[in-house]
Amino acid sequence: MNSSMIAGSRPDRTLSLNMTLLSHHELDGFGGVGEGVAMQIAPDGRRIMWLAHESAPKNFSAVDVSDPRKPRMIVQTDLPHAQMRSNSLEVVGNILAVAYQTTKVGLKPAGFELFDISIPEQPRSIVHFDASGPYSRGAHCLWFVDGETIHMACGAADFQPRNPKDDQIYRIVDVRNLSRPREIGRWWYPGTREGDEVEPPKRMPQFDSGYRMHNANVYPERPDRAYIGYIDGGAIILDISDKSQPKLVSNWRYAPPFTGFTHTVMPLFGPELLIVSDECTKDDGADWPKLTWVVDNRDETNPVPISTLPLPPVEVFGKRGGRYGSHNLHENPPVEAAQRSDHIVLATFFNGGVRAYDVSNPYQPSEVAYFVPGAPRMSPKGSIQINDVYWDDRGIVYCVDRFSGGLYTLEMNL
């Protein structure tokens, strides 16, 4: 092993290429940021970064990042109890949507809550959408970008899965009347519900993570399509031109032989590609390789993988501590504060940090920047675990740690 790889294997060392740290905020000692990172441009012009915590005791935090070199906490809220988390959130204008998932079925609150954040320091609850029930843990992840519709991975009181790992399905909720959200459509993987006429899908032989939905993305370029990561069910494209009756367009499954957990399916409309990320869920590379795929989507009924984003080298990161492998993407949200790109993809890799890739040549994507912070203080894994990333319209990159690291603000030099 050469000297640079030996240095890189030190989890206390910060590694970087074409990314410069502007600031680091520890979120007043409460890290644990999940997959909810969204920016509001407040009525007074300030830029507020909203962050969902994926573990108790905190619900969400808001940080003023108007000056990215001097972030300032302005509010931090508590969860109703410790047996739940707010893993995901989205912001549209002055409305904040927060997903609530409980640790086991039957608990409340489970579903999502809408907040008025027109005064960011004083989030005001508007309504709670109740998705609790005897088979439901509530909502894991939601997508809310148009101010009208929430697309979410969520259980339901009347959905009984054949296997408890398959409890979260695709649910579409109309929130045009903010005080009275109502479900208008749903879809689940065939064979996963009690009473389905088709046979249940075959379980993964070693890493059975479940046939449940993780992520849904819907964009104004194709409002009739939902792009869905369905964990062991793979990458799914649904026709939602009639939201009351979503229909399957295609299902790309690659596990087995790979180890499952399709996380995010993000379309790049110009080059007609899909960027599909897995999620690493095991420490020390036990479920390696967890990849981020580049998929040819010119024929959406037959998506074809053509390459993967280069992984951080396993020799350096596989045993660096904690999880190693693919996870989240900057999902090109169609909102005013977000950067959108058809050729630069930002992705997170837990102990491999945040990384940027040029996919102009989709057959040979190249890594153009990365930032891997040193191990945060009191990290239970002994290394950084970068969980999510957001790229704003000013070109500033924000990434968050799964445990104690908090929020890192970066300038990308491309």
Structural account:
- The protein has 414 residues and is an all-beta fold.
- The chain has one domain: Methylamine Dehydrogenase, Chain H (7 Propeller).
- The chain is built from 2 helices and 29 strands.
- The strands form 7 sheets. Strands 7, 8, 9, 10 and 11 form a 5-stranded antiparallel β-sheet that branches. A 4-stranded antiparallel β-sheet has the order 1-26-25-24, with no helix packed on it. A 4-stranded antiparallel β-sheet has the order 2-29-28-27, with no helix packed on it.
- The relative contact order is 0.14.
- The model has no long low-confidence stretch (mean pLDDT 96).
Helix content: under 10%
CATH architecture call:
7 Propeller
Q: Round the mean pLDDT to the nearest integer and report it.
A: 96
**Tell me, what's the shape?**
globular
Please provide a brief summary of the model.
The chain is an all-beta fold. It is 2% helix and 42% strand.
Layout of helices and strands:
Blueprint: H1 3-8, E1 15-17, E2 19-25, E3 33-41, E4 47-53, E5 58-64, E6 72-78, E7 84-85, E8 89-92, E9 95-102, E10 111-116, E11 124-130, E12 139-143, E13 149-154, E14 169-174, E15 182-187, E16 215-219, E17 222-229, E18 235-239, E19 247-252, E20 262-268, E21 273-278, E22 292-296, E23 304-308, H2 314-317, E24 344-348, E25 354-358, E26 366-372, E27 386-391, E28 396-401, E29 407-412
Antiparallel strand pairs: 1-26, 2-29, 3-4, 4-5, 5-6, 7-9, 8-9, 9-10, 10-11, 12-13, 13-14, 14-15, 16-17, 17-18, 18-19, 20-21, 21-22, 22-23, 24-25, 25-26, 27-28, 28-29
